[in-house]
From TrEMBL:
Belongs to the sodium:neurotransmitter symporter (SNF) (TC 2.A.22) family. The chain crosses the membrane at residues 12-32, 44-68, 95-119, 152-171, 183-204, 224-245, 257-281, 301-326, 347-368, 388-409, 430-448. Its main location: membrane. It is a multi-pass membrane protein. GO terms for molecular function: symporter activity. CDD domains: SLC6sbd_Tyt1-Like. This is Transporter. The keyword DNA-binding does not apply. GO terms for cellular component: membrane. PROSITE patterns: NA_NEUROTRAN_SYMP_1 (PS00610), NA_NEUROTRAN_SYMP_3 (PS50267).
Length: 452
């Protein structure tokens, strides 16, 4: 392929790519969503299926996305089309990228609302209004926030502007540097919180909840959620990693890089769960409380621990940063596409897309108040966008990317990018051709046709 670099520029080094991709992967999915869906789906067996999905489906698909992006060095739609053409197939494969962009738009619109909750909690921690709060009071405070669309709109707007501004600025050195400091800091604070969780007396219960594999609790729906979440948490199935891969330097090893990203992402999720569940159990809260889990349990924990206010502020700032670096990656593929296809300026593309996702976000934040009667298949807009993207659109995007990489792209081109030892390449190829698509297809099948 002719392009040596993308017209958007490239990452300064392999480390910057790892940093940016980890910034995309580690986000609300790890700290907010993973603990609450683990809670809703009964714990251990769910965690095991999730880990299997990451290893057997997520990591191989991430390698495919990176190599397709890096080979073509274009936005996901054009990258898929070019790589297809090079292997003698039709450029129509670009359609997968189109579906991905739609997923990105829908995910951003609820993601930004949750990002707004996090910003609100920075303020709550700063003012100290939750010091010494009981879990019931923390629960009502969260309920009151959801019922207040004006406040939510303010925070959602701020979060959207922050994200659009970074995307408009391009592959920005500022955010790269910020991520370099913030990611390790997030980890250190998670460890401190984990240390606190160990002292609460609920640690053994929390640990057992996450790691005792009781398969009788596993349902097809839980397997679907685990599979869907493995795509969501690794930012797969929608072109984000493909777009980031298109800015990657040629000399970096894709296999090792992807393992590092997947490993870090999984570690953050597991540590977040181990930090949150003991707090839940020691305060007699319900692990299946849903999306409010983190926003209720953490204020209680910080309200009780020494220097809780300080740690609370820091912690929510870091979650906000993690969410922010993910949010920008939701916009990047579409912005790159708009620039390359419509030949418009990055600023124009980012603002145009930004206004669209911001407006859709209003429907999401209204789901808890003025739009609560608007439902799709029994779910409000917020839940519906979350459900169809994570559980259906990302896995479907993933199946097609796997089938594409396994069956359409010629092995010699794939191996030219991946440079894997031949046995590992065979394994990867089997995963693309069979394991990943079949796993996704089985789970989707049983979701549509539940077993009696
Ligand atoms: N991976 C991000 C998270 O876990 C969410 C995300 C999904 C970002 C898809 C980009 C693309 O929070």
């Amino acid at each position: 392929m002719k392009n040596k670099t993308s017209i958007q520029g490239s990452w300064a080094s392999r480390w910057i790519f790892i940093l940016a991709a980890t910034g995309s992967a580690v986000g609300l999915g790890n700290i907010w969503k993973f603990p609450y869906i683990t809670g809703e789906n009964g714990g251990g067996a769910f965690v095991l299926v999730y880990l299997a999905c990451i290893l057997m489906v997520g990591i191989p698909i991430m390698m495919a996305e990176v190599f397709i992006g890096r080979r073509a060095r274009k936005n996901p739609i054009n990258a898929l089309a070019d790589v297809a053409e090079e292997s003698g197939s039709t450029k129509k494969w670009g359609i997968i990228g189109l579906m991905g962009m739609l997923s990105g738009v829908l995910i951003f619109s609820f993601y930004s609302v949750v990002g707004g909750w996090v910003l609100h909690y920075i303020k709550v921690m700063l003012t100290g209004e939750m010091i010494g709060v009981t879990s019931d009071a923390a629960g009502s405070a969260f309920g009151a926030l959801l019922a207040d669309p004006a406040t939510l709109l303010g925070w959602h707007t701020l979060f959207s502007i922050m994200s659009i501004a970074v995307v408009a600025a391009g592959i920005n050195k500022g955010i790269e540097t910020a991520t370099r400091i913030m990611m390790p800091a997030l980890f250190v604070l998670l460890i401190i919180l984990l240390g606190y969780a160990m002292t609460t007396g609920g640690f053994a219960q929390g640990w057992n909840f996450m790691f005792e594999f009781d398969f009788s609790k596993l349902t097809w729906n839980a397997a679907l959620v685990a599979l869907g979440h493995s795509f969501f948490t690794l930012s797969l199935g929608m072109g984000t990693i493909m777009a980031y891969g298109s800015y990657m330097t040629k000399d970096a090893s894709i296999g090792k890089t992807v393992l590092a990203i997947g490993g870090l992402d999984t570690l953050v999720a597991l540590v977040a769960g181990l930090a949150i569940f003991p707090i839940i159990f020691s305060n007699g809260m319900d692990p299946a409380a849903g999306p409010g889990l983190m926003f209720i349990s953490l204020p209680v924990a910080f309200g009780q621990m020494a220097f809780g206010q300080l740690f609370g502020v820091l912690f929510f700032i870091l979650i906000a940063v993690a969410a922010w670096t993910s949010a920008i990656s939701l916009l990047e593929p579409t912005v790159a596409f708009l620039i390359e296809r419509l030949k418009i300026k990055r600023m124009t593309a980012a603002i145009g897309l930004g206004i669209t996702v911001w407006a859709l976000g209003i429907a999401c934040l209204g789901s808890f108040s003025f739009m609560s009667d608007v439902t799709f298949f029994g779910k409000n807009t917020f839940d519906f966008f979350d459900y169809i993207t994570a559980n259906i659109m990302l896995p479907l995007g993933g199946i097609f990317i796997a089938l594409f990489a396994g069956w359409v792209v010629k092995d010699k081109f794939a191996q030219d990018e991946l440079q894997l030892p031949s046995a590992v390449f065979k394994l990867w190829n089997i995963s693309m051709k069979f394991t990943a698509p079949i796993a996704v297809a089985i789970v989707l099948y049983f979701l549509i046709n539940p077993m009696k």
